[in-house]
């Protein structure tokens, strides 16, 4: 702590010496160098100004301008390329969608054609089957009719003989024929 | 205790430089530093302009950054007319900046710590901007001292104030730079001298304690680096502002 206060004292010592003793060299205008340095500064500054304004700064300006121009040119080129690419992409998308819709139309047509053909084939087959069915039914009908016609004399004769055995007398032929017809008709209806 | 005598102002005293030739023409040690600053600036341009690369190298990038910094300062502050004054502002800015920066190195003279130098620069800026004002607006530039939209009875009070504030521009411009640079270098010298006094007064213990002023000087070095850039910037931007006033009158 003691040396610190001594230190404080020491810090102030030079500034105190400055205040009472020597004057500032900057304020010593009796020294001719004080003003002469300004004259030489003027010479140095004029030369520096001439060199900088005539050579250094315009050259740097040119370098910067050149860079700005190159960047602008590259940007423009990139922008143009992007536009081109966008156009190509749009064209590709349009072509793709056109091709897709074309293909879809083609496909739909093919499906419709196939469907129509299938329907026609099915109709033809139906008609043929229908015809065959009708023919078969007719044949069955005919066979049935023939069978019915063939069974009537047999039934009449069987009824005649049964009645003869049961009653011992021959029934009236008209009556018998009519009853047999009725029974057959009833059977057929059932 | 009898320590070594420390004179914090000795560093500002002028001598002649460049040997007998310099002595003959009063070329001072501060002019040596000015010459060094100018040579460094021109050398930076020479190196930076060697490649003229699309993608700049270090020195080229440095020169380009300086160029664009000052160019933007001119066009932003003065307007489009600022392009005409750009080489002038660039010369002043780079000269002061390099002067401040090389003044931070040992054995280099900080010429911006001389009031004669800064006052000459400030007077040039003041006279030049005033000349630009009269060149651009003729006698009408005097209307600059009459604030617009002020009641007439206030004008006898305001016009002198405006004129005084205008005339004080070179003073504030020069003293700001001079005082900042001088104060920084004096502080450095004081703390460095304090280290010598500590060693002389307290021996080994003083040498150990000298770490404190040494640390302070290291911190001051960072501060002075900031001040060097800042004061150059302030001088340049105020130059731009004065030129703006001269061109636009408001």
TrEMBL record, chain A:
Its main location: membrane. Keywords: ATP synthesis, Cell membrane, CF(0), Coiled coil, Hydrogen ion transport, Ion transport, Membrane, Signal, Transmembrane, Transmembrane helix, Transport. It is a single-pass membrane protein. Pfam families: ATP-synt_B. It comes from the Bacteria. One of its GO terms (cellular component) is proton-transporting ATP synthase complex. It is found in: Cell membrane; Endomembrane system. The chain crosses the membrane at residues 38-57. The keyword Signal applies. F(1)F(0) ATP synthase produces ATP from ADP in the presence of a proton or sodium gradient. F-type ATPases consist of two structural domains, F(1) containing the extramembraneous catalytic core and F(0) containing the membrane proton channel, linked together by a central stalk and a peripheral stalk. During catalysis, ATP synthesis in the catalytic domain of F(1) is coupled via a rotary mechanism of the central stalk subunits to proton translocation. Belongs to the ATPase B chain family. F-type ATPases have 2 components, F(1) - the catalytic core - and F(0) - the membrane proton channel. F(1) has five subunits: alpha(3), beta(3), gamma(1), delta(1), epsilon(1). F(0) has three main subunits: a(1), b(2) and c(10-14). The alpha and beta chains form an alternating ring which encloses part of the gamma chain. F(1) is attached to F(0) by a central stalk formed by the gamma and epsilon chains, while a peripheral stalk is formed by the delta and b chains. This is ATP synthase subunit b.
Automatic annotation (TrEMBL), chain B:
It comes from the Bacteria. SUPFAM superfamilies: F1F0 ATP synthase subunit A (SSF81336). InterPro entries: ATP_synth_F0_asu (IPR000568), ATP_synth_F0_asu_AS (IPR023011), ATP_synth_F0_asu_bact/mt (IPR045083), F0_ATP_A_sf (IPR035908). It is a multi-pass membrane protein. One of its GO terms (cellular component) is plasma membrane. Keywords: ATP synthesis, Cell membrane, CF(0), Hydrogen ion transport, Ion transport, Membrane, Transmembrane, Transmembrane helix, Transport. One of its GO terms (molecular function) is proton-transporting ATP synthase activity, rotational mechanism. It is found in: Cell membrane; Membrane. The chain crosses the membrane at residues 33-51, 85-109, 115-135, 144-167, 187-212, 219-244. Its main location: membrane. Belongs to the ATPase A chain family. HAMAP family: ATP_synth_a_bact. Key component of the proton channel; it plays a direct role in the translocation of protons across the membrane. This is ATP synthase subunit a. It comes from Acidocella aminolytica 101 = DSM 11237.
